[in-house]
Amino acid sequence: MNVRARDTAIRKPELQLSRGSRRTFVALALAAAIPVLLLSGWVATLMAQQQRDLARSAAVASATRVAERVASDIAAQIAVLEAEAASATLDRPDLAAFYAEAVRLRQAHPLWETVELARPDGAQIVNLLRSLEEELGPTSDRTSFDAVVRTRQPVIGGIGPAGSISGKRLVALRVPVIRDGTLRYVLSIRLATNAVSSILRDAGAPEGWVGTIVDAEGNTIARTRAEVEELGHPANPALQAAIRNAPNGFYTGPTLEGADVEVVYRTLQHTGGWSVHFGMPVATLNAPVSRSYAVLGGGSFVSIGLALALVGLVGRDMAQRRAGEQARFSLALRSSEEQGAVAAEAAELGTLRWDTVAHRVTGSPRAADLLGWTAAEGRDSAVDADTVLQAVDPEDRGRLSEALRRSLAEGTPLDVEFRVIQEGREPRWVRVAGRVPQLHEHTPAGLIYGVVSDIEPRKRAEAERFALLRRLGEAQENEQRRIARELHDQVGQTVTGLSLGLKSMERLLARGATAEAGRQVEWLQSLAGEIGRDIHRAAVDLRPTALDDLGLREALATLLRDWSQRHGIRADLEFLSEATRLPAAIETAVYRIVQEALTNVLKHARAASVSVSVEKRAGEMRVVIEDDGAGFNADEQRERAGGEAPAKLRLGLSGIRERLSLLSGTLTLESSPGIGTTLFVTIPIPEHPET
Known about the structure:
- By secondary structure, this protein is of the alpha+beta class.
- Helix 16 packs parallel to helix 17 (584-605).
- The two termini are 67 Å apart.
C-alpha cells in the first residue's frame, strides 16, 4: 500500500466519524427533551439492579472467604491434634504426662471445651473435665468415633448428643493414635457450639446477613443470630434440599421469623460435609428495584414519541460508526500483526496455534525448530499434535497434557516447561506460554495461541548451580571427616602416649619420690585425660563416626545422650519406622539439622526437655523436633521485623533452610509464648538414589 492510498484509507473513516459526531449531538439534544422522570427512573433501575447484583456478588465472595477461613481454622485444630497424637507420652503410655500436655494445649486454645483420649472400644481413659482417677465411661457421638476406628483417618463430626460428663452437645474433632501400625487410642477435642459460632463470627460475616453452619446430617451447629433456638436442630427443608442438589450455590427459603431470605452457601472442604450459609431478606434485596420500576413505568409513556424519533437517527449513526471503526480496526490489525512478527523474531520466539479438537499444531519456523518438526523456510507449517507430543520427553508429556487441559477447562494462562528430544541432538528445555483466545463469542473451542522460547541456557545454569552447591556440601562433610579422623588418630594417640608416660612416671616416683611430686603427676594425668575427652568431643561434633558406621539412628541416639548429659536437659528420641539406611546426603542433613536445633534450644528456649521424632514415610523423611521452652509469638516477631520469618529472627535457622533447599525439603515452625517450639522438617527421598 502506497502513502497516498494509506492516507485516503485513514481519512475516509475519520470523515465518517466526523459526520457521525454531528448526528450524535442532534440525538443528544433530542434525548435532553425526555422528561426528567424517565431518565431518573431508568438510572435508578440500573443502579438498583447493580446494587442488588453487587450485594449478591459481595455475599458470594464473603461466603467463600468465610468458608475458607472456617475450614482453615478447623484444619489448624486437626493439625495440632495430630501433632499431639504423635507425642511420646502416648508411646508408653504416660497418662499423667499426657494429661499435663493436654492441659497446656487447652490453655493455648480457648475454644476447646475438653480433650478426650479413648480406647478403640470407646471407653474414655482421659477427659480434662475429670481427674485421672475418676471413672469416665464411654464416649459420646459414636458415629464420628466409629468412623475414626474404621478409617484410621481424622474425622470431623457434627453436633453430638449431650455428653455424660460435660452435659452439653459438643462438636468432636477426632484423630487416631497409631503405634507400630496398630490403633492404640482415639484422641479427640470437643468444641462447644458457641465456640463454632465464634469462629463463624470472627471469620468476617457480611453485614446484615444471617450466618449458619450445618453439619453433614443437616443439623445446625453454629449461627450468628438466635443460637439458642437453632443449635442442634435440623435445618429447614430448603437448606437440606439445596445441599443435596449441589455443594455450592443459591436458594430461597423461610427463616425462623417467617420472612423469605435469599441464601448463598458453600460446602467446607475437608470437614466431612459441613456447609456455611448466609441469608438476607428478599424484600430488602428487591425493594430498591421495585421502587425504580414504578418510577420508570410512569415516565415511559411520556417519552415514547421522542424515543421513536431517536431510533432512526441513532441507528443510522451506529451503522456509519461501525463501518468507520471496522476500517480502522483492519488497518490497526495489519499493523499489529507486522509489529508482533518483528518482535517475535527479535526475541527468538516461536508462535504456535494448538487445536486440541482437530489435533493439529500450527507454528512459525522458529516454533517448528524448537518443538522438533521440519517446516518450510519462511512459512508457518502444521503437524499432527501426536508428532509434537512424541518429541517431548516421556517424563514431561503428562505435565504438558495436563497444562493444556487445565488452560482450556479453566481459562487460565498456559505456562509450562518441558524437554524436547530430537535425533542427533541433546535434550533441550523449552517453554510454552499462551492462552485461550477470547476474540468473540463464536471462537472455536479447543484453541490455544502461544509462544515458544528456548530456556536451555537458564536450565543448564540452574543445574550447574545446584550441582556446585551439592559438591560444596559434600566437600565440607569430607573435610570435617578428615579433620575428625586426624584428631582421633594422631592428636588422640599423642595424648594417650602422654597419659601412659605420666602413669609410668608415677610408678617411678612412687618408689622414692615425695608426696608433692605424686600430686603433680596426678594433676598432669587428669589434665591429659581432660584433653583427650575434649579432642574426642570435637571429633564427634565435626563428623560422628557412628553416622558412617552404624547409621542415622545410632548417631542421633549418641548425640542426644551426650548432649543431655552435658547440659542437664532431658532429651528423647523416637523412630516411628524401621531403621533402614538412607542416602548419605539425607542422613547427614538430618543429623546436622537436629544438631543445629539442639544448639538453638540451648541458646534461646530455656527448655526442660526436648523430643525428637524421626519417621520414614512413602517417598519422604519427616523429622519433628519439639521443646517445652519459652516459645514466642510468631506474628509479633514478623511485624517487628517487617515481615521477616520468625525462625530466622529468633532461632537462626538459615543454615537448616539452606541444607533443605539442596534436598528440596521444607521447614515449618510452630511456637506460642510459654508453650514451646516445634520444628517440622520434611525431606523427599528419591526413588533411585545416587550412589
